[in-house]
Structure formats: structure tokens, C-alpha cells
Amino acid sequence: MGVGALAGLVAFVFARIFAEPVIQAAIDYESGRDEAKNALEIAAGITPESEGPELFSRAVQGNIGIGVGMVAFGLAIGCFFAVAYCMAYGRTGRIRPRQLALLVALAGFLTFYLVPFIKYPANPPAVGNPDTIGDRSGLFLLMIVVSVVFAIGAVALGKRLQARFGNWNATLLAGLAFIVLVGIVMALLPSLGQLSANADVSGSLLTETPQPLTDPAGPSCTRVSTPTCSTGSGCTPWVPR
């Protein structure tokens, strides 16, 4: 747990330097998009939807919030790692404790993070569609379960093939079976942009990141310095790019 907390602290420093600016850029993008959308709706005589109250300021989210979250997450992962290590110790042949610890950590990284991330990459807050939070959470959890189950199956398959093909070849065959099965599941599961709440708005896309606003003629609208619309297409104070 102590090592997990330390890892969480290191992750917090990394996130504060590298991830937080990306998150802020994503929030700025959607805020600007919402501003443009509200201007278009007002110009069309439509009352824009009001935003909900901000429970925590960006200063709190980007400093104390992300720090507490990372350290707590590190503690939890440390506990999971300890349990997995204790379950594997003595059941994996003649692997030394340090090598076993590295293998358990690598397996956890692959199954709990890398494989689900390949199918459903994390997107910054405020960019995802709030109507798909349940669907996105369910799909990501499903990918984790699939990854863990297939990894356990691959280990069992490798042990069965070991006597016939040898340790190295059995490992390669089991790893190949894992990749093929995970790839099939990834191909069958929908992309986030294909969820009904997103497809109804922007069509079937790979991502649910909000797309550029368009006017009735189709071209994107962008802010200009003059408050007039040069085409009369209803994009005041925006004009086609």
C-alpha cells in the first residue's frame, strides 16, 4: 500500500505537469463550442440550455482533487497487487519473488489498463457526452472483464501446452490466442461514436468528441472580429470558415 501511495504521488506530479493542460484545453474547446452554439440558438430565437452549478472549481480539480484521487487510486492498486501476488506466489513454478512481482505488475497493466484503453481510450472530462456515461462505463468495465478472463485462460492454456511445445513456444501460442480473442471482442463491440446518443447527433463516428458546428449549408463556423454574418446564413457572430 505504501508503494502504491508513492506511485500515486508520482502519477499526480506527472498528471499535473502533462495531463492537466490537455484537460484544460479540452474544457476550453467545449466551452467555446457551447458559446458558439448558444449564440446560434439565440440568433435563431431559441433559448439556450442553462449550465448546471460547478461543484468544484478548476483550481480544486487540477490540484487537490487530482492529487487525492491519484494517491487513493495508488493505494487501491497496491492492495490489488498484493492480493494477486499472494495468490500467484508458490503456484508459478520456480519463478523468483522479484521476477514474479514484475510479471504480476505487467499482467495487471496489460489486462486492467492497456487492453481496455486500446478499444476505449480515455477522453478528458467535459468532452464526453453526459448522456452516455452509463454506456461508456459499462463498455469499459466489460473490456476489463474480458481482458482479465482471457488472460487467465491464456495462462491456463500455456500451462497445458508447456509439456508438448516447451515453455517459450507455449507462452507464444497462449499470447497469440489472447490477442486473437481480444481482437474479436474489440471488433464486435461498438465505438463510442456509434452509441445511439452520439449517432443521433453526429452520425456514426469512432469518437464522441463534439464535432465542429455547421450552418445550414454545411461549412464550419468560426469566430471573427466583426459581429456580422457575411453570408446571411444565421451564424451571427460567426461566419463560415
Domain unit count = 3
What are the segments in which pLDDT stays under 50 over at least 5 consecutive residues?
Answer: 219-241
Strand order of the largest sheet: 1-2
State the secondary-structure class: mainly alpha
Individual helix count: 6
Number of distinct beta strands: 2
Mean pLDDT: 82
Strand content: under 5%
What is the percent of helical residues?
55-70%
Shape type:
flat
Radius of gyration: 24 Å
Most strands sheet: 2 strands, antiparallel
In short:
Helix content is 66%, strand content 2%. The radius of gyration is 24 Å and the shape is flat.
Task: Supply the key terms.
mainly alpha, 3 domains, two-stranded antiparallel ribbon, 241 residues, 6 helices, single chain, 2 strands
How would you characterize the overall build of this protein?
The structure is a single chain. With 241 residues, this protein is an all-alpha fold. It has 3 domains: 1-38 and 59-88, no CATH class; 93-210, no CATH class; 212-241, no CATH class. Helices cover 66% and strands 2% of the residues. The chain has a two-stranded antiparallel sheet. Helix 1 crosses helix 2 (58-88), helix 2 packs across helix 3 (97-119) and helix 3 crosses helix 4 (133-165). The longest helix is centred in the first third of the chain and has 42 residues, at 2-43. The chain starts with a helix and ends with a strand. Mean pLDDT is 82; it is low at 219-241.
